[in-house]
Design brief:
Length: 475
């Protein structure tokens, strides 16, 4: 069910199946549709190609009712070479060697098979190969955009780690604190891919020292199926920043440890995704990805100049990507009708103010409607929602707070701290400055008139009473 819908979204299924004009992903692959977002620089000319996997030819050439097609979207993320594609291979029970699978840069989309046909997986497979220095910033920005897009699209985020490293802990923390993942509707699983562990006792030692000790996770169990065919699934549960996390264990294939853990982890993950019917949504993945990317492009690119040396302000011009009129490419809107995409390149320059964290996450997301966003925590009681926003170095007059029924909007300006130090040379600059705008979505309506705010030691505490409703009987 999911595959035809994704192909419609990609422009492959219209009134009939037209995959011949699309490039096929070469070699063994699990992917059905690949948005080859290999570089932001490609938008200057050809843009990003839409490629197809081998299953596209098997799709039925009729248009299903899109109102009846829904599913959950699962993003598989993790540091490079942690086994993300191995996990897809295992979940689909397909005998392809992970080492020989094609890893295509960009967003790779896979529709579920058989009983999992309401599940769509997104992989952000990329490259960790060396690159010439003047291309490094573009790669960082492209990777950040891919991660932001994948997290925005997903219902479930599955983080894949091997033997836990400090870099993995940092990665997990950045995912969990990401505004998209912090939403109550998002679910987070961590897959511990212990690909070097063979013995059951060795797996237990790793679980004790990493899963139970570091994450403070507890063993849990749920039953899949009914009657004599029911299966018990063991997993671990932890809580981090108010988010419930399920931990699933995998060991090296065809070993005693794998016999204990792998199959029940597969059953546990797939069952959890399948039964989450309340989290299903429309599967317009390609169009939604483009819509999200369009919200980021004005902040990614700096002001450039036209050929006559007049100023071209990309933020005012509202750069947008669209599907090309006749070619299987995603291009800038002013190149939609071009026959030769290599001609007349659109001049683009990455913004010099892009900010990143250690894992290339929050920089792009922090620039929604502004240069950056402050950190915040959100708490809830039976009576109210409380937001605490970190705004150190601000006077009360520097930030403006607007309360609406379903959101808190804070906007302000921080002066560059360097201005207070005459003749200074910057060696390190991690404190953001310039204009910011933060919008905090709330899960229920609040009583704006009764909302109160107080400032203390650089923290804004905003207490929002929940809106109460009364019932009136009319006779």
């Amino acid at each position: 069910m999911a595959l035809p819908n994704i192909l419609i979204d990609a422009g492959v299924l219209v009134r009939k199946l037209i995959p011949n004009r699309f490039t096929k992903v070469s070699g063994p692959t699990l992917y059905d549709v690949v948005l080859r977002i290999d570089s932001l620089e490609s938008l200057s000319t050809t843009g990003w190609e839409i490629m197809l996997g081998p299953r596209a030819n098997d799709a039925q050439p009729q248009i299903p009712n899109k109102n009846d097609i829904s599913g959950v979207v699962v993003t598989i993320i993790g540091s490079y070479n942690r086994g993300k594609t191995f996990l897809l291979n295992t979940l689909f029970n397909i005998e392809l060697s992970s080492g020989n699978l094609v890893h295509t840069e960009g967003l790779s989309i896979t529709a579920g098979r058989n009983d999992a046909d309401h599940i769509v997986f997104i992989d952000t497979a990329g490259s960790d190969t060396a690159i010439i220095e003047d291309k490094l910033d573009c790669r960082k920005a492209t990777e950040a955009l891919l991660k932001e897009t994948a997290l925005n699209l997903c219902t479930f985020a599955i983080i894949v780690v091997n033997r836990l490293r400090a870099s993995d802990q940092s990665y997990i923390r950045q995912v969990l604190t990401h505004p998209e993942v912090s939403k109550p509707s998002k679910r987070v699983y961590i897959v511990h891919n212990l690909m070097d562990v063979e013995a059951v006792e060795d797996a237990e030692k790793v679980i004790d020292t990493e899963v139970k000790s570091i994450f403070k996770a507890e063993l849990k169990k749920f039953k899949v199926g009914m009657g004599p065919n029911a299966t018990d699934v063991n997993y671990y549960h932890s809580t981090n920043r108010g988010k419930d996390i399920r931990h699933f264990i995998f060991a090296k294939s065809n070993t005693p440890a794998a016999a204990v853990w792998n199959q029940q982890s597969i059953i546990g993950i797939m069952n959890s995704l399948t039964v989450a019917t309340e989290l299903r949504r429309n599967l317009d993945i390609v169009n939604e990805a483009m819509q999200f990317i369009n919200t980021k492009l004005p902040q990614l690119f700096a002001t450039t100049h036209n050929q006559d040396n007049s100023v071209r302000d990309n933020s005012e011009q509202q750069l947008q990507v669209v599907k090309h009129a006749t070619k299987p490419f995603i291009v800038l809107s002013d190149r939609k009708e071009l026959e030769n995409l290599d001609e007349n390149p659109h001049e683009l320059e990455l913004s010099p103010t892009l900010l990143y964290d250690a894992r290339y996450f929050l920089g792009i997301n922090s620039m929604d409607s502004g240069k950056w966003q402050p950190n915040y925590n959100l708490y809830e009681t039976d009576e109210e929602i409380i937001a605490i926003v970190e705004l150190s170095g601000f006077q009360r007059s520097d930030a403006h707070v607007c309360i609406i029924e379903e959101a808190i909007v804070i906007e302000g300006w921080r002066t560059d701290l360097k201005q207070s130090i005459p003749n200074a040379i910057t060696d390190c600059s991690n404190i953001p400055f310039d204009h910011f705008k933060l919008q905090i979505p709330l899960k229920c309506k609040i009583d704006c008139a009764k909302t109160k705010m107080e400032c203390d030691n650089g923290f804004y505490k905003i207490a929002c009473p929940k809106k109460k409703y009364t019932t009136v009987l009319l006779e």
